[in-house]
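DATA SHEET
Item: assembly model
Revision: 1
Owner: S.N.
Input lines:
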Amino acid sequence: MNRGLAGARERRVRTGGIELCVAELGDAAQPTVVLVHGYPDSKEVWEEVALRLQDRFHVVLYDVRGCGRSTAPQPLRGGFTLEKLTDDFLAVADAVSPDAPVHLVGHDWGSVQGWEFATVARTEGRIASFTSVSGPSLDHFGHWLNRRISRPTPRRAAQLLGQGARSWYVYALHTPRLPEAAWRGPLGARWPRILERLERLPADGYPTASLPSDAAHGAWLYRDNVRSRLRRPRPDAYAHVPVQLIVPTGDRYLSQHLYDDLEQWAPQLVRHTLEGQHWVPRTRPDQLAAWIAEFITSQESRADGAGAPAARTPAAKGPYAERFGGRLVLVTGAAGGIGRATAFAFAEAGARVVAVDRDAEGASRTAELARLIGAPAAWGECADVADEQAMEKLAAKVAAEYGVVDVLVNNAGIGLSGTFMDTSAEDWRRVLDVNLWGVIHGCRTFGRQMAERGQGGHIVNTASAAAFQPSRALAAYSTSKAAVLMLSECLRAELAGQGIGVSAICPGIVNTGITTAARFTGVSEEEQQRRRARTAKLYGLRNYPPEKVADAVLQAVLHDRAVVPVTPEAHGLRFLSRFTPRVRRALARIEPKL
Amino acid sequence: MAAVVGAPGSPRARTGPGAGELGGFREVQRLAYACAEEVAAQLRPGVTEREAARMQREWLRRRGVRDWFHLPFAWFGDRTAFAGFRVPLQFFPTGRRLEPGMPFILDMAPVHRGFTADIGYSGCLGPNPLHDRLMADLGAHRELILREVRERRTLREIYADVDRLMARQGHANRHRAYPFGVIAHKVDRVRERRWSPHVFGFGTQSLKGLASDALHGHREGWSPLWSPYRFSDHPPQPGLWAVEPHLGFRGTGAKFEELLVVTDSRDPQESAFWLDDDLPHVRRGQEGRAA
């Protein structure tokens, strides 16, 4: 039996000969959010998100006709058209929020319905905003197909074939009776395990027991709507409400290109991408709830007229902003060089940034500038990454005050130049403490929080081109960075199952402050100064900007890359290490003249 | 401030300019800043860099300016940070149009009655907190430069210290993009001629002065260009220096440029001072600190 939602008030709404089961959470005086589920689901798919929204909003969920504890229309054929589903939605909205328009959120078929509600005239004034997750409008989809069929350029043809292959289940659902038999039989019984294995849903009692009949009835959603709408899409399917689009990047059923032309139908569209598979309401509830709440709050304040947003930096656009907007990013070594540039790049994309450094003043300066260029919030924190206790304290503080980190960049590092024989035990300890243990502490503390939350994330470790190029002059440094590279690869393998990506960045020669703080072993203080100045000058002549490395970091997270050489020399050395190890060893013997 | 410096009759190159001369320089610098403020007030969305440069040129011509150290420049948007500049021709005004919230820089160097000014004015079309931050950060550079010149540090060291402060602040050094990477250059009186042509935007009279300074300096071990290179490894040379630190931060740039007076006085206060402390960016800094 369905267990229902914990603490929800339930009521039944009669409409068009059926009875809908409606659940409400939170204070009814707050803005109302209606969450609509997809196929094959029931309203419980939204449970995790609803629980996170109930403190701030009046959250309403209902079982779509034929699903969960709502009754099914008789006969089934013709009972699931979008017109009837719109009647259902209006009946629910009138029952739960008769005076004020509601904020609509839909996932999968809930989103397909949501697009219908948001684009037909009779719902005007009843919807305040619409958040679409993994479900295109059938009308927009129809136009999308027509455009690609009528002028199939190679790219368009590829997009068409890609979505065509992803839609296999739609064709299957059009066969008579067989889908029902499968759902009521073996498929229904195995479905929870399939979701767990293929879609990485947590095994927490979802889907509910009503799944076989939900899925069997829901097949009529496809049969009643898909063919007719795709054949004759409405030409006027323009959204009359503000729309937020959330696209999971790993969706097996829907291509990201479906939304390419969406601005045409929904002006001022807010876009987000979320790394995850189709069932993000189950797998990424934190982020989903955060974006829904933010969008609703901004729409509410605009409606009040209070939020004439004065002189705010314009919202960033582009793939980085879609992916990192509102996410929490922590960067170590953020008071200068690559760390600072990385913090700024994330800030420009609209991420919330925690800048960590030994240099408290530099870290807070990074945070201050990050706020000025678009980070909704940024904090500077003082910590030495080599200090285990300090890192644990920092992790506890960050988790308590800012939340679980979505992207962790273990960037702090120091330079040490000198042969093995010239390097003292103390030097070894220092360089390994910062370059290797710093990364280990970061991954152990923040990485563990990320893994325990179970909602994905990404770890970026800054290795070096020295990680694959040995050199007699960089014994300790290269060793520490090679260890970071291997650590990243091992961790990547370990965390892959939990949706957490790990990348190792290998920059190469980049013009940063690392040279002025580097130590040269086995020489006098005066000679040390001279070599520092000399390397700083050489790095200055090379003049590869840290901003380009920062861009590589964002790319690495966006595309989940494992090892990322950045400068041309880093690419070259990596090539040598893979294909001509002899040349690499010969290079290692050269003693650089400084 | 306008103290008489140096014994009368002594060679100017060694003592710095006299009081009467300073008045003339101050006057033309004020004129140039007045032009910048007036033109800045007239900037509207859609105005191009070329139009802004022409507005400056015409405003100053109407007030009697006939010769230039260099013709007025105008940079809008990310061109204020010299984003993607590879060749010097990119400094010249383009058809880039001003948009709301965009930073801009007006840079002009008129010669008026034989006195040269070289100024840079940074502003923004509408409120921009990042630009305010940059302007506040420039204030620290103004103090640093004056302090270290008074300490008679070598120009090359001061340049490196400015670089370090910029790095600490999180900014990029954009004056490195100027010819020879200069943070400052000497200016001097220019003979008034009926015909004063300019090449590549620079007045030939002023270039002649600069070249003759370079020649003298080469013999005596100093340079009229304040650069990061070895030829600037000498203490500040008495005279007038147009100092122009230029910060860049991700597509937003800001600079000021004004005249610094260097003399050979032993009194630190009089050994170097800003020609005029009543300039827009200085007033803005004081208001910011008071607020």
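QC remark: Residues 9-304 of chain A form a domain with the Rossmann fold fold (CATH 3.40.50.1820).
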